[in-house]
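so my prof wants the structure for this chain in the tokens format not the other one, which i didnt know existed until like an hour ago. anyway here's the sequence
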Amino acid sequence: MRESARGVSVKTSSSLSATPCLWHSSHVKKTPAAPGTFFDQPLAFVDLETSGATAHHDRITEVGIVTVDPDGTVEEWSSLVNPGQRIPPFIEALTGISNAMVEDAPPFELVAAEVQKRLEGRLFIAHNVRFDYGFLKNEFARLAFPFRPKMLCTAKLSRALFPQHRRHNLDSLIERHGLICTARHRALGDAQVLWQFAQIIRRDCDPAQLAASIGTQLKTPSVPPQLDPAVLDDIPETPGVYLFYDAKNTPLYVGKSVGLRSRVMSHFAGDHASGKEMRISMQLAQIEWIETAGELGALLTEARLVKELLPVHNRMLRRAGELCAFRWTPGAVTCKPPELVRAADLDPQRLAETFGTFRSKKKALEALEAIAAEHGLCPILLGLEKGTPRTVNAASGKARPCFAFQLKKCRGACCGEESIAAHNIRLLGALTCLRMRAWPYKGLTGFRESRPGPAGEPVTDMHLFDHWCYLGTVRSEEELRERLESRLEPVFDLDTYKILARVLDQKKHGLQIVPLGRSTARQLALELDQAA
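here's what i got, hopefully its the right format
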């Protein structure tokens, strides 16, 4: 196809693409779509080439659209677009679109009417559709024109229909299905590939499965009545934390996800089936979000914000003030019972002597009672029953046993039938599964996580911990020094401990562990003081 600054349009009357298609047949006719499939509505297969990956900053360099009507008519159109900014060399090398090629091309405002005409009333179909939609939405927004089409993502569709395959990028689809691409990484060439893929799945896939997979994507959740729908379009599909507020700016809910937009939308998809979700939807007036480099950053940020903001609908993390654990040091002859300690008073340097994490004192005591009953331990020695072990009854001259011993549920450490040492060994064995972890690193440690950024550069967070105490997150060496120079006193938080321990338990946590060369944050702060 000859390169031109003007649009190129080709119109045919066929159920297949006018350009090289899968069935090289000389017999061409209109083939109306079967009722009940997504082919019985006007379709637009769209691909864009852009100057970068950030919709708010970068601009469109080429538009390619293949429209398909229910009667089988296929029409193709494409145009180069002057982005009004330089095309980076690596983008030029990828697409083959140079700055010279777009120099005399029309800016988007001159092709906007044509693009809008070709997309109006059609199902907007693209590979990773949020990318193409985001660029067009921003271009139309600059012209004060609303753009809210129904959308279908062929990448998601491929994952749903062919879950046995790992890769679903466009190159993988071309290779897997034998598709023909006349110009890879050019807008019309890639749009033609999507139309070919649609014909493949219509021909080869089970109609019911195809309809269900498409229906899942097209099902649009109802938007809360007080919320501006345009806000939802701006939420990225990245890891992070989202915050719901009502009209008076009262925090309603804080949540986290590795895919922010999908998680936020899921609140509204099922709000009719959940009283809590319905209440949130009725109150929700504004949404904020914080992007993170990965799951650990999202978990840590969520835990911090819930405790700071005390959102109305976050119940579990709001109760952090009641968290507690048992602290106990076994001895050969001592019978000191496990000590119940508030989470805020735990010493991170003594976690090897700490057992369990409980939401309340009541839950902790219930757990200890269950352990005593299961292992035949003495309630008196555990502090669950009043009494002094091995006391002598003046009348009988015998040691006074606990009530459980009389029921044959205690082996008699309280009355000399079992030695204190043996009892303590059994207690230690019973508590082992609840033992908290000692810090497995040498003092101050960074946990680095990364993901690709919008323009290809990595987004990286380093989370700082000292003996399970979270000291904050930094993104540069300068921020690291500032954080350490701020003399933050490490404070142990049970929820943070559980978050990091759970992430580290994953076989593929994706974290880079960075020893920071000091035994503790306190010592590093002292050294910084001395250096100053």
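also thought this was worth mentioning. The longest helix spans residues 187-204.
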